[in-house]
Amino acid sequence: MLVEFTVTNYKSIAAPQKLSLVPGKSSSGKPDRSAPTGNSLAGHALRSAVILGANGSGKSNFMAAVDFFSTFVERSAKDSSVGDTIDVVPFKLSGATRAAPAEFEAIFVHEDALFQYGFAVDNRRVREEWLFSRPNEPGRRMRTLFRRAFDEDTGDYAWDINDVHVKGDRETWRKATRDNALFLSTAVQLNSSSLKAPYIWITEYLRTLPPPDRVSPDFSAHRCRDGKGRRDILKFLKSADLGIADIAVEEQPLVIPQELEKGLSDTELRELREHIGKSKVLKTSTFHTSAEKEKVRFDLEEESAGTQVLFALAGIWLDVLETGYTLFVDELNNSLHPFALKYLIEMFHDPAINPKGAQLVFTAHDATVISGQLMHKDQIWFMELNENSATHLFPLSDFDVRDTEAFARGYLNGRFGGLPRITEFDFGEE
Question: Is the dihedral of CA 9, 12, 15, 20 positive or negative?
Answer without folding.
Answer: negative
